[in-house]
Write a structure and sequence with these properties.
It is a single chain. The chain is mostly helical. It has one domain. Helix content is about 85%, strand content about 0%. The protein contains three helices and no strands. Helix 1 packs antiparallel against helix 2 and helix 2 packs antiparallel against helix 3. The protein is elongated and about 65 Å long. It starts with a helix and ends in a 6-residue tail after the last helix.
Length: about 120
């Protein structure tokens, strides 16, 4: 492998690392924001508690699956040079699916929150 390929591989790994950090940040930050909001509405408006908790579950799933990406990447790179291509493919798919589920869970959490909160009657 020449120097250019090594440099490109390192750049791709760095980009992917930033993507994982972003997935952790948006899901974790969203969960913290919803927990803060939940504290303020806990006693006053109980109709909003359910949608917030539903969204928190998806954000927690996003944090969990984003945290799975790096161990899966480690094992993918470990088996990349070995003769066991089946394990390599398994961990590659684990990495890709974990990252996708992490980002998709954030989107589902936000859409779920907005849709469910729009259905809550206002206390005007």
């Amino acid at each position: 492998m020449d120097e250019t390929q090594d440099k490109r591989r390192a750049e791709r790994a760095e980009i992917y690392t930033h993507g994982v950090n972003a997935a952790l940040l948006i899901n974790g930050g969203g969960a913290i924001a919803l927990l803060t909001f939940l504290q303020s509405v806990w006693g006053s408006n109980s109709a909003t508690v359910g949608p917030i908790i539903d969204s928190l579950l998806f954000l927690a799933l996003g944090v969990f699956t984003a945290a799975l990406v790096n161990p899966c990447r480690y094992y993918t790179s470990l088996y990349c040079t070995s003769t066991t291509q089946r394990r390599y493919r398994s961990f590659w798919w684990c990495t890709a699916v974990s990252h996708f589920v992490s980002l998709a869970s954030f989107a589902v959490a936000i859409v779920l929150l907005v849709v469910q909160l729009r259905a809550v009657p206002r206390n005007d």
